[in-house]
Amino acid sequence: MQVCSPDFVYHTFLNPNDGQKESILKNGLRPLSDFPESERWKQIETHMPGFFEKLYDDVAKPIIQKPYANSGIFVSPIDFQLLPNSMMHNKARIRIPISRIDPEHAVLTYILNDERVRLPLTQENLTATAKLWDDVLVTEWFAKDESRMFLYVPQIATYQPQGIPIQEDDIETF
After folding, report:
1. Is the residue at 58 inside a domain?
2. Is residue 2 included in any domain, yes or no?
3. Could you tell me the pTM of the whole model?
4. How far apart are CA 174 and CA 165, in angstroms?
5. CA-CA distances (angstroms) from residue 94 to 43, 61, 75?
6. Domain assignment of residue 79, yes or no
7. pLDDT tens digit string along 77-127?
8. Is residue 1 part of a domain?
9. For the chain, what is the domain count?
């Protein structure tokens, strides 16, 4: 069964009561580097200096070919509502039309056969990825590494300036 959408990407609220929803509606979905005073940013930068630059260099720069600008926003084409046994099923989420992701600042990526795949964000690549990553493959590889749940499965890393605009009707609760 196809569980990846070629038309929408998703961002799940892992902690829906932390006040993020209001900020996201007001300012859009923004990279963590836009919040240098946040505890999370400080913690990552203290314990893993340069982490986001290295991640960009590994995941996105070969495709985007622009200098590092921000820590990026990671969203996934996986529709976890189609996977009732997943820990992400029935979690509040943002359903974002793919048209809001600037392909000039984004990369479609996943790991398959022990190799990091990096693809330009095109409709053709999204459709091919959706066909490849069916429910069986997503279920096998999602959260294989519990500390990095999305490491293997399809993600879109976007480094677009100003983040992703979000509207009230993009937010879904179950």
Report:
1. yes
2. no
3. 0.94
4. 22
5. 26, 26, 10
6. yes
7. 999 999 999 999 999 999 999 999 999 999 999 999 999 999 999 999 999
8. no
9. 1
- What is the widest separation between alpha-carbon atoms in the chain? 43
Domain that holds residue 83: 8-172
Tens-place pLDDT, residues 4-35: 999 999 999 887 667 788 889 999 999 999 99
Q: Locate tokens 């499965």: which residue? A: 153
